[in-house]
Amino acid sequence: MSRLGNRLPACLACLRRLAQPSVSPIQPPTGVVLMQTRAKSNHMRPQDRGVVVRLLEDIPGFGRKNAVFRTERGRMRNQWYPANKAEYMTRQRFQELGLTEEDVGDRDRAFAALGQADEDDFVFEVVEKQQEGDKTPKMPITTAHTLISTLTPATLTFYRKVIEKPASEKAEKPRASRFKDTTLDIYGSVSTNDIANRIREYLVTDAEGRMVTLQPEDISIIGLEGNALKAIGRYGAQIMLGGSEDAGVQPVLKVVEILPEKEGELQKH
């Protein structure tokens, strides 16, 4: 008799027990197939650029009432929309307000300097200042121009998505710029409001700079009648605060540079 035959039990009960599947912490039950699962990867999923909204009230750190810009979906869905602080800008809403994609600006981060603690504190502070009256002496225009010139870099860079065109349509077109001209049009635009917001971001880093009052109307693009740039390139801009012409103050000159936004990258500014 073989060795295998010698190892088999002789009684029927033992044979029946061996034939039944057993559960062991070391060996899986007979007939059970173990499979390894992997978490779903979102590595190749394109990044979400958010939604376009319009503020229904002033929000520190984001902008004034009626400002139109992109923001995170979660913030709009969970915070602003339930509190009626902003509305979704659908195609129909764009038409009703007479707006286009060119009117979509950037978040006004400098607006946070008006109230860092809480939005309620911000409202209280503004009302209190209005009741007290304007007791703060107005900053001289020469001082304001000096602060804008020194606190702001010579070149203000913006990133925008380029509109792809067939090679046949890439003909030379005049651009309102005394720098390098291009024919790469962009989605949306870079407006004087965007430029003003960018300059304010630098001004709020300085105690005196926070006192400078800068409006989009104080900025003009050299050689351009409108207030929006719509192509990749470098453009000249001048800043003249209200009343600077009467004071005989020279304008502050800056370069506005628009660069292509990389594919799949969120709009930086």
From TrEMBL:
Key words, A-Z: Ribonucleoprotein, Ribosomal protein
Gene Ontology biological process terms, A to Z: translation
UniProt xrefs under Pfam families: Ribosomal_L9_N
Keyword field contains Cell wall biogenesis/degradation: no
Cellular component terms per the entry's GO annotation: ribonucleoprotein complex; ribosome
Transmembrane segments: none
GO molecular function ontology, one term from the record: structural constituent of ribosome
Family stated for the protein in its record: Belongs to the bacterial ribosomal protein bL9 family.
Protein name (database record): Ribosomal protein L9 domain-containing protein
